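User: Structure tokens for both sequences below?

Assistant:
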Amino acid sequence: MEKFISTFFISTMLLLSSLTVSALPLQEIDGSIDFFGTSSNTVVAGVVTKIDFSTVLAALTTGNFIGSEGMAVTFLDMPSIGPVNALWVVNGFTFDLDVVVKNVVDGEGIVVTGNGTLHHANYLDTAAQWTYTSQVREGRKTTFSATVPAPAGAALLGLALIGFGFARRNKKQ
């Protein structure tokens, strides 16, 4: 009887955990996306004060961004380096730039890095980082990367291993 109760308990826990995993709420966005195109930069006293974007295409994608390669990207020109809603939009993803962390102009080019929030209807809003690199005046490559959440499957595997441990322990008794 004790073996039956133990088996029933383990089966119920595994069933409930699998139902819970399949009914999880929206997940955070993960992966990275690079953009290629052209831009013009206005530099005043060693600080980028304006970036004018031209034709921009998405390339080199990973994670949730796969499938966006070669798509045209809508990039807002940045009149000042600071908060910008919908800085870029592609394939349902929108990035709001909240704060600029680094704005460096040196002999090798420009690097502007900022933190913000990535939005998509099928995912949770996700904190993300955006980096703009360029030669001093023309040509640019920007890189965006988001946090990578731990997969829910690992939690399910852990529960299964715990269940098997209980079953084995009861079998020895």
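Moving on to the next sequence.
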Amino acid sequence: MGKRRKAREAAVQYHFWRDLQHGETPEHIDDFWAFCPVKPNVREFAQPIIEGMVAHLPEIDDRIRKYCENYEFHRIAAVDRNILRLAIYEMLHRDDIPPVVSINEAIELAKTFGGADSGRFVNGILDRVKGDLSRPLREAAPSPEKSGQD
């Protein structure tokens, strides 16, 4: 399994833990990493995702609510809710990750950690989010150091 998949798993675990603690986070993020140890290169990819998800959580949750018509937000399984949060954060705020990659990774995480219908549920919500995007779905934005070298 690649470092990015492990990093995404760690981000989902962090936010799942946060949900169980009613939004409380550990006093220091190192407490989480002590509980959920990963290799440094995994942590390097996961840390900004975790922090970005926290920073944009109200916006992300509003987006989930928007597309979960006729379904109460608090009734979404915690695993599915946090997988959606991860993917929506990446789709909206991580131009270095193509949206289709975020969607595919989220579906795989949902199939692995969620219930029998989690993959389909996550796919349905993220497909609707994808329709709101104005950036290319299959491309990452060029990194600043590469764009200046052409």
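User: Anything stand out in the second?

Assistant: Residues 146-150 have pLDDT under 50 and may be disordered.
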